């Protein structure tokens, strides 16, 4: 048990150190990509929720499923918003003439 706590603390410290070194301009693309990749967590949450007969394990698996789903959807929304920032902007005159 103590080894797991040590690994968790070291991973948290390392993750914090790495994220503070990322330049602000790269933070959004990296995080949106990481959130999209974390769809693998959804598979793990489904497995965790379905493999056990204990109610608390199923509840924990369901909670992980909800949080992972929010993470993945948020990653795709951030990526979509970021890509729309770099798209072509339609001029007001072009949109008025196309609607007539």
From TrEMBL:
EC number(s) on file: 7.1.1.1
Recorded topology in the membrane: Multi-pass membrane protein
Keyword Translocase: yes
Chief location bin: membrane
Source superkingdom: Bacteria
InterPro entries in UniProt: NADP_transhyd_a_C
Function, as annotated: The transhydrogenation between NADH and NADP is coupled to respiration and ATP hydrolysis and functions as a proton pump across the membrane.
Subcellular location: Cell inner membrane
Location of the NAD(P) transhydrogenase alpha subunit C-terminal domain: 5-87
Organism name: Longimonas halophila
This protein's GO CC annotations: plasma membrane
Molecular function GO terms recorded: NADP binding; proton-translocating NAD(P)+ transhydrogenase activity
Keyword check for NADP: yes
Reaction equations catalysed: NAD(+) + NADPH + H(+)(in) = NADH + NADP(+) + H(+)(out)
PANTHER family: NAD(P) TRANSHYDROGENASE, PROTON-TRANSLOCATING NAD(P)(+) TRANSHYDROGENASE
EC primary class: translocase
Ranges annotated as spanning the membrane: 55-79
Protein name as annotated: proton-translocating NAD(P)(+) transhydrogenase
Keywords: Cell inner membrane, Cell membrane, Membrane, NAD, NADP, Translocase, Transmembrane, Transmembrane helix
Entry's Gene Ontology BP terms: NADPH regeneration
